[in-house]
Design goal:
Elements: E1 2-3, H1 9-29, H2 33-36, H3 39-61, E2 68-69
Antiparallel strand pairs: 1-2
Helix pairs in contact: 1-3
Length: 77
């Protein structure tokens, strides 16, 4: 889940979601169980995810747009 205070960002998220998802798939596929088995690891993953989303939005619309990312569930295998 992503949080933004800027209503103009919501349509940009929809428009650029394929790029965001692609980048997140690559990010998440590079993480192993040991890296996210701790609270600190999960927090780092959340921060890395936020940075990636903000990077895409900065490139596409000129501003980071998203203030927070929240994981509502995590499946680890």
């Amino acid at each position: 889940e992503m949080m933004t205070y800027d209503p103009d960002v919501v349509p940009a998220l929809d428009e650029h979601m394929p790029v965001i998802r692609n980048n997140l798939v690559f990010l998440l596929s590079s993480v192993n169980y040991d890296q996210i088995s701790t609270l600190e690891g999960k927090q780092k993953l959340r921060a890395d995810t936020l940075k990636e989303i903000q990077k895409v939005l900065k490139e596409k619309i000129g501003k980071p747009g998203v203030e927070e990312v929240y994981f509502t569930s995590i499946v680890m295998q």
